[in-house]
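Saturday, quiet lab. Running sequence design on the structure tokens for the scaffold JK sent over.
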């Protein structure tokens, strides 16, 4: 504990120093050397005391800043048992420490606030320096890139080598678009870059947007408009011909057999074309979903029963896996049943009746993002890559007599339901699966 008393007061010491200095001056003028020596010694003693006091206060400042530098904000100087001057100094230093503590707490709160905002937006954000180190990222960027931890650009090589090169060499002001495939789907990203200086270092702020859904919607809208025009024009042309041929066939009396046969061909062909066009109208006239809550297990078991009744293949087994057992989905059950039945029927047709160990799996679960996932997979022949990229295109089919609208209708229903349908994989020896995602 430091000494207390009047001698520890800085004002008192300065006053005594002033008096001693004046005494030295007076005695020097009067040539009273003995008194001058005593006054000089007293002056030196006062200076030493003041120097000691300032050094002690400087040590306090050093101790305080060392504590702050080590984030030790619990450190405090004693304010009792000292002179009034020391108590005032200690109180001031403690106040400075509290100001730093409040500033630090405010900075942490703001950092959490901005981090919450960044993780709430649908745009991925990356902050990267010129050496490729990642200063900051948000959850949306990690989701788009398929990473859980992202600390350096080199990690993108595991996702896609072209993406790694693009992010490595991209510069402020650049805009790029890139597509790559992962285990779940094909991702199309729009990338915009800006620059700034952070901690005296130049960094790039990279904004990433997933535009695949936007491209899909534009593509679907284009197909819908085209299909509506074509079906309208075909129906306008075929319907009168079919009606006229039916009227001519109904006229009583003798008609040349060759003419009757020709009219029969025209009439039957017209009917077939009308039925054909009607099937395409389904793609453009899907009703708006009327969602309701229903249990997924009960729904899945009903879909399997309908599929096995319509396709009684003894060489194919269908397994249902739903977790949790009471999983509930909020969607239009009638429309989703059309999608699942179509996928199950396609799975049965892919396996066929010749494969002895045919297996279809209907799985449902809830992922980490609380989205309901329904997956329909089969162990039939893999879909060739050149066909896989076209399977959702309207009118594309590899089946004899197929219309090519089943999967395009399924995609349209999932789009209207706020979800998505993707082809999971087509690797030989593994299940070929279609995944329905309901956010």
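Result came back. Writing it out in full:
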């Amino acid at each position: 504990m430091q000494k207390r008393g009047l001698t520890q007061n800085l004002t008192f010491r300065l006053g005594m120093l002033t008096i001693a200095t004046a005494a030295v001056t007076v005695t020097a003028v009067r040539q009273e050397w003995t008194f001058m020596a005593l006054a000089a010694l007293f002056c030196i003693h006062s200076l030493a005391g003041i120097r000691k006091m300032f050094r002690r206060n400087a040590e306090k400042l050093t101790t305080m800043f060392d504590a702050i530098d080590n984030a030790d904000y619990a450190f405090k100087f004693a304010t009792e048992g000292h002179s009034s001057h020391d108590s005032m100094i200690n109180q001031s230093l403690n106040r400075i420490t509290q100001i730093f503590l409040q500033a630090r707490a405010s900075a942490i709160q703001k950092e959490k606030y901005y981090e919450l905002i960044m993780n709430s937006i649908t745009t991925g954000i990356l902050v990267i320096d010129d050496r490729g180190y990642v200063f900051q990222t948000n959850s949306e960027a990690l989701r788009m890139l398929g990473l859980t931890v992202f600390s350096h650009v080199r990690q993108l090589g595991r996702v896609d080598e072209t993406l790694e090169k693009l992010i490595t060499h991209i510069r402020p002001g650049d805009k790029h678009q890139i597509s790559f495939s992962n285990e779940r789907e094909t991702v199309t990203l729009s990338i915009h870059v800006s620059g700034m200086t952070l901690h005296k270092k130049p960094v790039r702020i990279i904004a990433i947007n997933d535009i695949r859904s936007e491209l899909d919607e534009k593509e679907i809208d284009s197909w819908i408009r085209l299909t509506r025009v074509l079906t309208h024009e075909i129906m306008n042309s075929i319907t009168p011909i079919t009606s006229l041929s039916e009227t001519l066939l109904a006229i009583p009396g003798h008609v040349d057999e060759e003419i009757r046969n020709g009219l029969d061909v025209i009439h039957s062909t017209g009917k077939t074309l009308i039925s054909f066009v009607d099937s395409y109208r389904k793609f453009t006239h899907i009703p708006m979903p009327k969602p309701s809550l229903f249990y997924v297990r009960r729904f899945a078991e009903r879909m399997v029963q309908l599929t096995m009744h319509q396709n009684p293949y003894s060489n194919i087994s269908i397994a249902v896996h739903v977790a949790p057992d009471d999983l509930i989905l909020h969607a239009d059950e009638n429309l989703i049943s059309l999608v699942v039945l179509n996928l199950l029927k396609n799975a049965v047709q892919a396996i066929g009746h010749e494969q002895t160990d045919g297996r279809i799996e209907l799985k449902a679960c809830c992922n980490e993002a609380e989205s309901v996932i329904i997956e329909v997979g089969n162990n039939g022949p893999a879909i060739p890559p050149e066909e896989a990229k076209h399977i959702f295109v309207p009118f594309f089919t590899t089946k004899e007599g197929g219309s090519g609208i089943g999967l395009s209708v399924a995609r349209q229903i999932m789009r209207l339901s706020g979800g998505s349908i993707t082809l999971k994989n087509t690797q030989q020896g593994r299940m070929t699966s279609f995944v329905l995602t309901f956010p």
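Notes for JK: The CA atoms of residues 66 and 72 lie 8 Å apart. Residues 1-7 have pLDDT under 50 and may be disordered. Ask whether to fix the surface positions before the next round.
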